[in-house]
Amino acid sequence: MQSAGNELPNNTRIHPPGFYIIGLNSMPHTNIYVIFLSVLYMFTIICNVFLISIIFNERRLHIPKFMAVGNLAVVDLVLSSSLVPSMIKAYLFLDNFVPFKWCLLQMYTYYAFLSLESMSLCVLAYDRMIAICFPLRQETLNTNTKMAYIIGGIWCFAIGVVIYGPTSITYLSFCGSVKVNSYFCDYAPVFRLACSDNSQQWIFATSLSILLMFLPFSFIFLTYTCILICVFRMKSIQNRYKALATCSEHLILVALFFIPVSIVFNLGFFGIVINPNVRAVVLSITSCLTPCVNPILYSLKTKEIRIRVYVLFIQRLSVHPLPK
Predict the structure, then answer these.
(1) Which of 105, 150, 179, 311 is packed most tightly, with the most Cβ within 10 A?
(2) Model-level pTM?
(3) pLDDT at 324 over 90
(4) Are β-strands 97-99 and 179-180 bridged in parallel, bridged antiparallel, or unpaired?
(5) Are 73 and 65 in contact (CB under 8 A)?
(6) Who's near 37: CB < 8 A, 6+ residues apart?
């Protein structure tokens, strides 16, 4: 693939002081959109911090299932925090300039935790499969130690794989425009600005999309295939309903996360041009809505969490009763 502009000698690299993020400039009703994302971000912080504190302090929740839930809450916090504060700053203070090194840091943080989001949903799918398909062996197949190894493994994998992306940007030269047509320091819009050969970055972007989107979705699809086979082998209709009901929240989250991201990346992969505003809205909402919905839809609707919230509420009332 030929790079944009004239190529420079391999030993010459030109790095700008920073980039201007202009994705929000052309978007209609920017003020309403930023306010909407700010509200989502506020609820994301409150709900996920509350959830993490409950799981951490309640010893009865120190089991593999809630280790996975707590991990997802941590990932949600960092993922949303890598995007929304910078968007609020750009809108409120009319300052859309991001220094070069800060741009690479935001790029790395976003894609590392976007990858962790997809793999954390895989971990939850694995937990559901073990619970439904192997109920009698669940305590031996899915222990706290094994879950800790799995969570540690996906963190090391995501952090190690994604680091090549921002690092590869430092090997490019930028001798033209420094206006990034996105809502943050997005990898593809940044390396497209380079006037040196960016074919390696194109290959990495395509490979990362397949590795961290298609493979996790395929894994989740296979786990639910196993779950459906086991469910339909159950003789009791009531047991079938109970088993499937435990998966409903997770399936909604999978749809919220994977469907918009898959559509955007697949259209780009096949060379179909997407309106930059549409791409920005779809990806930013996916990155902000899923972390907000996660603790509410999946975690706070879980029986164990509801009981703990109720106990805390009763204890609070007993210490500070409402005035008559």
Answers:
(1) 150
(2) 0.87
(3) no
(4) unpaired
(5) no
(6) 84, 87, 88, 284, 285, 288
